[in-house]
Design a protein that fits this description.
Length: 136
């Protein structure tokens, strides 16, 4: 399977602007700029998209890991915080809240660590990955 996205940029790094379009067109000429990346401008930015990708990938992987362990989650909510420091992504922090009938906390934490280490986006990122997980 191959997926793609396209970025188009016009102008300088600080004054220019760009648009991002994904293969599915969920993002369709979505605006991004220096202001949306480093300040509070309107639009998205690469770090926000990495956070969305990591949260989504991890959450789906956790569902599969829980299923393989014999548990079906009622819900899993994951927030991902990506840290950009001195021009590099230095950290990805996952905050997980889940409702999983019949599981104890030790088994849940084991499943979270498995998903954290083995989701494809975790494997892609060359950075420190950590998490905090609670059962509802």
């Amino acid at each position: 399977m191959v997926r793609n996205a396209t970025a188009v940029w016009s102008g300088s790094g600080k004054e220019g602007s760009g648009q991002l379009t994904t293969q599915s067109t969920t993002l369709n000429q979505t605006q991004y700029s220096y202001l949306s990346r480093f300040e509070n401008g309107v639009g998205t930015n690469p770090e926000e998209l990495v956070a969305a990708a990591h949260a989504g990938c991890f959450t789906m992987k956790l569902s599969f890991v829980l299923g393989a362990a014999g548990f079906t989650p009622t819900s899993i909510e994951t927030k991902c915080e990506i840290t950009l420091d001195s021009g590099a992504i230095t950290k990805s922090y996952l905050t997980v809240k889940a409702t999983v009938p019949g599981i104890d906390d030790a088994k849940f934490q084991e499943c979270v660590k498995d998903a954290e280490a083995n989701c494809p986006i975790s494997k892609l990122l060359n950075t420190a990955i950590s998490s905090e997980a609670t059962l509802a």
